[in-house]
Every structure is written in structure tokens, then in C-alpha cells.
Design brief:
Elements: E1 2-11, E2 17-20, H1 22-32, E3 37-42, E4 48-53, H2 57-70, H3 78-83, H4 88-97, E5 100-106, E6 109-110, E7 117-122, E8 129-138
Antiparallel strand pairs: 1-8, 2-7, 3-5, 3-8, 4-7, 5-6
């Protein structure tokens, strides 16, 4: 069994910016030269998330609307009362979506559904530079 570590550098445009990172993750699998295993993508930070979605225009519009319904910006958050930074909803949204995703691969290929892509979701209220960690375990 081997372990490979790498990173994906991103510049986001701000709140609910969703970036398809599937090809970058696949590139790290190729670079690792492993054929079978699991790849984990992790975002250090409390206002970003990694998940899967069908990366198409309709869902790119639906996703922010759903987040707003579940965790509205204009609600009072205790984080805001303490820090006054305007991103209490960002922290709650990121916690629900999660900071990491593990995906199996076989024959050097990600095992994803036909319409499934790996995405990073920026949930902070402003643009950010992100450095996602990619760690692969396999052989």
C-alpha cells in the first residue's frame, strides 16, 4: 500500500461559487501511478466544502436556492454576534456539507456515476484562495 499527497489550488469568486475539480482529482490519481484505492479531497478551513453533484446549469442555480432555504443569510447567527464578520451562515452551511470527500478508484479511474462530478463549494461571503489537500491511499 502506498500514500500520495498533493494539492489543488483554487481562486473562488465568493459565496456559493461551485468549481468542478473532477479532472484535477483524476490528474492526481494519474500522477500517483496507483491503479486501485481511495482518494480523499479535504479543504482546510471552516467555510468551504467538497461534495458531488451533476455539474449543470440547472443545479448550479438550484443549489444556492436550496442552501438559502435551509440556512438563510438573514437569520440571526450567534457567530455573528460574537465576531461581526457576516458569515455565520457560511460556517453552518459548510458544516452541513462537510470539508472532505472520499472516492474510490479502480484501474486508475475514479468510480463516479455517469453524471456525478466532484466539486468544491465556496461558502464564505467573499472570494478566497483555497489550497485543497488531495491524499490517495492504494496500490
Amino acid at each position: 500500500m502506498s500514500v500520495y499527497s498533493g494539492s489543488i489550488k483554487l481562486k473562488t469568486s465568493g459565496e456559493v461559487d461551485m468549481i468542478d475539480i473532477t479532472s484535477e482529482v483524476a490528474g492526481h490519481i494519474r500522477k500517483s501511478k496507483m491503479k486501485d484505492g481511495i482518494v480523499c479531497v479535504f479543504v482546510p478551513g471552516a467555510t468551504g466544502a467538497v461534495t458531488t453533484i451533476e455539474y449543470e446549469d440547472g443545479l448550479l442555480k438550484d443549489f444556492p436556492i436550496a442552501l438559502e432555504r435551509l440556512m438563510p443569510k438573514n437569520m440571526q447567527y450567534h457567530h455573528e454576534l460574537r465576531w461581526h464578520d457576516g458569515n455565520g451562515h457560511s460556517h453552518v452551511r459548510a458544516s452541513f456539507l462537510g470539508p472532505s470527500l472520499s472516492v474510490p478508484f479502480s484501474g486508475g479511474q475514479l468510480i463516479l456515476g455517469t453524471w456525478q462530478q466532484i466539486v468544491f463549494v465556496e461558502l464564505d461571503t467573499h472570494s478566497r484562495r483555497r489550497d485543497l489537500i488531495v491524499q490517495i491511499v492504494g496500490g
